[in-house]
Fold this protein.
Amino acid sequence: MRTKVIAFSLLVVLTACSSGQSQGANSAPTSYASAPRHAVSQLPVIPLTVTHDGKQHSFRVEVAGSAEEQDKGLMFRTAMGADEGMIFPMNPPRMAAFWMKNTVIPLDIIYIGPDKRILNIAARAIPYDETPLYAAGRVSAVLELNGGRAQELGLGKGDLVVW
């Protein structure tokens, strides 16, 4: 049994994350083709809101839509604005685990379920740490914000995320 658990865990890690990000997503939808581009990543930048206790928090997030974009994610970035982030859409929804390989800044990794609600948050993920951080269930997207930002805004399980 232990071998099966280890093999399954390894399979999840290998298929759900590489270079710190989830793989296998479809390309970014064409609706992002006209979106402005981020100066560093050249990824589309879109608005995203998280609703917590009736209050909306607005962000501008880069869309990492392709497997290659998700592989790179926020690696090697040294700064990110307070209301900036990166979203990793996953279609179809699936299990995911992220890590912080080559990621310089601490991040809150927010797992979003198929109902667009937060499943769980890996808060203040440690830069360069290669320990997999798992979603609490199938995800339709993963949102990365600056480490500690989710707690600062009071974001948590069940909050609605719209992009």
Remarks:
- The CA atoms of residues 51 and 160 lie 5 Å apart.
- The chain is about 15% helix and 35% strand.
- The longest helix spans residues 2-16.
